[in-house]
Specification:
alpha/beta, Isoleucyl-tRNA Synthetase, domain 2, Isoleucyl-tRNA Synthetase, Domain 1, 4-stranded antiparallel β-sheet, 46% helix, globular
Length: 927
């Protein structure tokens, strides 16, 4: 006998252990030989990570698909693993070392990397155990890590191949530089933060004119939010059509403080309508200026160190072409070593002292910050490694455009195309120690040799230098005579962007570049389930790499799920204090309740607004199923070898079997079309409403009666339907259903020992007559119950039921179902009448009008007054909200989640208004 209540804290670890000991989720488990493969690769969480609500939603949806397809008999692989998370992991380990007063630079590179591996062994990867608590049925025996030996081999293969194909190259370009972490970061790792700053307006004198702050003909005014960058200015741009400056184009200005002569250039980048119409150009410290600089062949002068301190007098690029005087050198010396913000202050002071500061305006603007380092990043001119993403993007664009890979919801395809068709070179080098070190070695003259190993690079270098005539040949020959490793070649110290190895995930995890059986069986994968924020970071790059190296898309479908927000629609953040920890929810409500809640709310393209009260509600759903199984046990329900669906005789049994067929189709269609909320909704309605509330209730007289044949049939039917319910709910609520499956194994038809390996339901029983018959009863009783509730009829009160205009079918049903109607609807005598008696509430059901004389049971006048007052209140709220939402300023300026919350309130009030209006009309008509 089942325990009285379901205890998730006891059951979930027990079931997890059973699955683990049975190796239930290994690739191909439960499938017959030759079965069709179904593959999903997990978006690898960071090794530093812990489970958050985004992970919970993402992995719940993946697990639904995986369990569903496993039950459909497919050869399923859900490939798990973790990402080495370069910057994040290095920061964690550096902080840990600093707690012991050890700086990273106190260690050698190898010593530091050893510390990272030690940390991973002790603390890394906790998130995978947390995913197991959620019920994730991945093949944990195949867990991979982006820094493990096999994946590292794939990374080397890809880098070297792309380099030799000319698709990886080194270039001096502007990058987003994080001066705290001392590394380049990608555009996607930069977040814009609104700050209250200033806009400084500077006067740049025209060469040959005597500078006079009062005479605009002697200078051009430019404006900047970063005054320190003017030290690296190499031009001022004006629009070609701007008549105010046409006479100055081609002439020079004299850069204050520096003394450099810089040209006025005509370029459409300058907007005549903004500011003075003239723009200072600093190619080494602004992305737009860099492009202007390329068009006009301007020098790019980097005036910052990697720590974002100013460097001038030891800076060859800065000094080039300048007349160095003692006076100038003294001023420049002031800046050497100054932090960029201190330098900003000093530049403004000097510009003001020289009469070059025209004005300062308060200016709120966006400043790019590194999402990890948390400090303002600097556009920084430096040598980095790049992938020619534009070339790799072409087949990836075609794959989506031609339908070989489908993105769901389809609205994200537009975003994908916009980014891919305007893709920039992908900067793949990072100035870190933790990661895949770039397989490039430099010879004594700076020539680069890219190979998979140092031995191969050295062989290539020796062949190259010995074929030369000149000093390098002799130098190499000399070094070879007394060879010491590292003397001829020096390895590039940079590592690869974390997303480089992640881009190979769908095939590197299957053994590529080796032609493994797993690669043959499980690539291409079927569907990628991921958050929309990864469409650029990861999805697009996997498409590019998969097509280039496998000549096939990495997946045929990409399902993009939305964000999980708090109950008010606000994005969760530590600063707001509204972060919900999924592990806390699992502890309180159980994993199944959390999973089912997320599934019910996972409508395509709509953010999930998570309210713990909803989780409590869906825990009650599980309790309902548990209690239904207990009810079945108490009524001696058991599977019967002799029970065949088509032999069922009772209409109620034939009805539930028909509804089961319909529900199974709805749930299957919902999962296969990635409409997970519709699948969960169909399951909920069938289990709670039809099976528990109606079917079992309708069977009570059967179980209490004396017809043994009816009892036997109903017990077998209940057992069959319960088995099918466990199967249908299993992908969404795996722990409870697996427990119920085990607890009801008993005698009867043999079935798989594990529910996760049972066959997915595909019932095809339909009896339209039985369905129509019982659904008529359900509609009738539901209608009567609604009227009683709306009109505040006391629960114990019994009213007669009178029916007008009943046809032969309805009359027969009224007679046959009389006892059920009286018991379930709390009515007395049932009679056929020609007219409705006074004081009757009326319901139209098909061709008949159902009358409930309630005048003697309630005060109709008082009830009408109560409903009218409620209706007035609701109508006033609707008017208030409508006025608020009609205010364009409110809609434009209020946070999006606040506006959406008000719209939802309005919808709720309108629904209440409609119900109250119906109830009031009924009361008035009855009076």
């Amino acid at each position: 006998m089942l325990e009285k209540t379901y205890d998730a804290k006891t059951v979930e670890p027990k079931i997890a252990k059973i699955w683990e000991e049975a190796d239930a989720f290994r690739a191909g488990a439960g499938a017959e030989e030759g079965a069709e493969a179904f593959t999903i690769v997990i978006p690898p969480p960071n090794v530093t990570g812990s489970l958050h609500m985004g992970h919970a939603l993402n992995n719940t949806l993946q697990d639904i698909l995986v369990r569903f397809e496993r039950m459909r008999g497919k050869n399923v692989l859900w490939q798990p693993g973790m990402d080495h998370a370069g910057i994040a992991t290095q920061m964690v380990v550096e902080r840990r070392l600093m707690e012991k007063q050890i700086h990273r630079r106190d260690l050698t590179r190898d010593e530091f990397i050893e510390k990272v591996w030690e940390w991973k062994a002790e603390s890394g990867g906790a998130i995978l155990n947390q995913l197991k608590r959620l019920g994730a049925s991945a093949d944990w025996s195949r867990e991979r890590f982006t820094m493990d030996e096999g994946l590292s081999k794939a990374v080397l293969e890809v880098f070297v191949t792309l380099y030799k194909e000319g698709l990886i190259y080194k270039d001096k370009r502007l990058v987003n530089w994080d001066p705290k972490l001392l590394t380049a970061i990608s555009d996607l790792e930069v977040e814009q933060q609104e700050v209250n700053g200033n806009l400084w307006h500077f006067r740049y004198p025209v060469e040959g004119e005597i500078f006079d702050p009062e005479n605009p003909k002697t200078f051009i005014t430019v404006a900047t939010t970063r005054p320190e960058t003017m030290l690296g200015d190499t031009a001022v741009a004006v629009h070609p059509d701007d008549e105010r400056f046409r006479h100055l184009v081609g002439k020079n200005l004299v850069l204050p403080i520096v003394g450099r002569k810089i040209p006025v250039v005509a370029d459409e980048y300058s907007d005549p309508e903004k500011g003075s119409g003239a723009v200072k150009i600093t190619p080494a410290h602004d992305f737009n200026d860099f492009e202007v600089g390329k068009r006009h062949r301007l020098p790019a002068i980097n005036i910052l160190t990697v720590e974002a301190a100013v460097t001038l007098t030891d800076n060859e690029d800065f000094l080039a072409g300048l007349e160095v005087t003692p006076e100038r050198e003294s001023v420049w010396d002031e800046f050497n070593g100054l932090d960029r913000f201190a330098a900003r202050k000093r530049v403004v002071e000097l510009m003001e002292a020289g009469g070059f500061l025209e004005k300062v305006e308060p200016h709120r603007h966006a400043v790019p910050h590194g999402d990890r380092g948390g400090v303002p990043i600097e556009p920084f001119l430096t040598d980095q490694w790049y992938v020619n993403a534009a070339e790799l993007a072409k087949p990836a664009i075609a794959s989506v455009r031609e339908g070989r890979t489908k993105i769901i919801p389809g609205s994200w395809e537009k975003t994908y195309f916009q980014w891919m068709e305007n893709i920039e070179p992908w900067c793949i080098s990072r100035q870190l120690w933790w990661g895949h070190q770039i397989p490039a070695w430099y010879g004594p003259d700076g020539r680069v040799f890219v190979e998979k190993t140092e031995e191969e690079a050295l062989a290539a270098a020796v062949e190259y230098y010995l074929a030369l005539e000149g000093p390098w040949k002799a130098w190499v020959e000399d070094k070879l005579e007394n060879f010491k490793p590292g003397e001829i070649l020096t390895r590039d110290e940079d590592v690869l962007d974390t997303w480089f190895s992640s881009a190979l995930w769908p095939f590197s995890t299957l053994g590529w570049p080796e032609k493994t059986p797993e690669l043959k069986t499980y690539y291409q994968t079927d569907v990628l389930v991921t958050g929309f924020d990864l469409i650029f970071f990861w999805v697009a790059r996997m498409m590019m790499m998969g097509l280039h190296f496998m000549d096939e898309e990495p997946f045929h479908t990409v399902y993009m799920h939305a964000l999980v927000r708090d109950k008010n629609g606000q994005k969760m953040s530590k600063s707001k204090g509204n972060v919900i920890d999924p592990l806390d929810l699992i502890d309180e409500y159980g994993a199944d309740a959390l999973r089912f809640t997320l599934t019910v709310m996972a409508a395509q393209g709509r953010d999930v607004k998570l309210d713990p009260a909803r989780i409590a509600g869906y825990r009650n759903f599980g309790t309902k199923l548990w209690n239904a199984t207990r009810f079945a046990e108490m009524n001696d329900v058991a599977r019967n070898d002799d029970f065949w669906l088509n032999d069922a005789k009772l209409a109620v049994n034939r009805w539930i079997l028909t509804e089961l067929t319909r529900a199974a189709r709805e749930i299957t269609d919902g999962i296969t079309s990635y409409r997970f909320n519709e699948a969960a909704g169909a399951a909920y309605r069938f289990v709670w409403n039809l099976f528990c509330d109606w079917y079992l209730e309708l069977l009570k007289p059967v179980f209490m009666g004396t017809d043994e044949a009816a009892k036997a049939e109903s017990r077998a039917c209940v057992a069959f339907v319960l088995d099918e319910i466990y199967k249908l709910l299993h992908p969404m609520m795996p722990f409870m259903t697996e427990e119920l499956w085990a607890e009801t194994s008993g005698e009867g038809k043999e079935r798989p020992s594990l529910l996760c390996h049972a066959a997915w339901p595909s019932p095809d029983f339909e009896d339209e007559a039985a369905a129509a018959d019982i659904n008529w009863l359900v509609d009738l009783v539901s209608g009567i119950r609604s009227v009683r509730s709306e009109m505040n009829v006391p629960p114990a009160a019994i009213a007669p039921l009178m029916v007008i205009g009943a046809n032969a079918t309805t009359r027969e049903r009224l007679e046959r179902q009389a006892s059920a109607i009286k018991r379930l609807a709390r009515v007395g005598d049932i009679s056929l009448v020609d007219t409705a008696p006074r004081g009757s509430a009326q319901i139209v059901l098909n061709e008949a009008t159902i009358c409930l004389p309630l005048g003697s049971l309630i005060d109709l006048t008082a009830e009408a007054t109560r409903l009218q007052k409620e209706l007035v209140k609701v109508t006033e709220e609707i008017a208030r909200l409508h006025k608020k939402l009609s205010n364009e300023k409110f809609v434009a300026n209020a946070p999006e989640d606040v506006v959406e919350a008000e719209r939802e309130k309005l919808a709720e009030y309108r629904e209440a208004q409609e119900k109250l209006s119906v109830a009031l009309t009924r009361v008035r008509e009855a009076g």
